[in-house]
Amino acid sequence: MTDTLHPTRGTSTGHVDPRTGTAARDALHRRRRRLRRWAWGIPLWILALLFLLPFAWMISTSLKPDVEAFSVPMQWIPDDFRWANYTEVLFGEGSILPAFGNSVFVALLRVLGELATATLAGYAFAKLHFRGRNVVFIGYLATSLIPAQLLLVPRFVYFQQLGLYDSLWALILPGMFTVLGTFLMRQFFVSQPGEFAEAARLDGANEFQIFWRIYLPNALPMISALAILTFVWSWNDYESPLVFLSSPENFTLPLALTNFTDETGAMAPGIAMAAAVISIIPILVVFLIFQRRFVQAMTESALK
């Protein structure tokens, strides 16, 4: 009698278990999230493959004889892999190893110098209080409005008078100070709470200890992002070495890549592409090492 009058109670057929409904809703949400991931993932994978096509062509061409580099239709996988292209690039008469070492030397010193100057200057503009701080910072930012090409001739004359022309220091010293690096680090330190510094001062810490032990460890993601950007800019820099270097033994890798020509003076595509493949390996290694911190820095910058 009770089950007939109240069909939603007990074990009658009209009873609905709330747990069953919750499980069904969760399963539906999981299916929807999976569909959204596929809806976004497939176009992104297709786009990524399109961006990788030039790199695939570069690797394929580096393993071909020159006569097959521009054959139509294109053959992505060579019938006979020409590994001699890499041997000639590394150990031949025009080896890129000296230029590779010069590029590594320049890039490392520029990265270290940029990180030192940018973090110190960014912290000073963000956390130190001195007269004219904002005016000096705005004036420093205004220098970025001057085109870099406009400064090539004054820099050339200046380095020539200092005796630094045709030396790697003509590339290293200007790369140690950039407006963008100081701006990025200043914006990061501005976003950090000032209570950290106040508590440290109460404990007797000086300004450098506050910077070194409190704020600098928190800035590691942004420092990693800046290191990657500085390394890539230095590694790919072609204009400055072209202007300030004249001796082949001082050439960096971008200049050395222009030396691979055939007997007619035209570019030798197989050898040139082999050298290009070798030249991008350090950039990939640096990015893979700092990838997590780079993504973290970009995400935090976007959220702030």
From TrEMBL:
Pfam (any one): BPD_transp_1
Membrane disposition: Multi-pass membrane protein
Record domain ABC transmembrane type-1: where: 100-290
Transmembrane segments: 38-59, 137-157, 169-189, 210-235, 266-290
Presence of keyword Transport: yes
Signal peptide: none
Cellular location(s): Cell membrane
Predominant location: membrane
Domain of life: Bacteria
Coiled-coil residue windows: none
Polar residues bias: start-end ranges: 1-14
Keywords: Cell membrane, Membrane, Transmembrane, Transmembrane helix, Transport
Region (Disordered): 1-23
Family to which this protein belongs: Belongs to the binding-protein-dependent transport system permease family.
PANTHER family to which the protein is assigned, alphabetical: ABC TRANSPORTER PERMEASE PROTEIN MG189-RELATED (PTHR43744:SF12), ABC TRANSPORTER PERMEASE PROTEIN MG189-RELATED-RELATED (PTHR43744)
Official protein name in the record: Carbohydrate ABC transporter permease
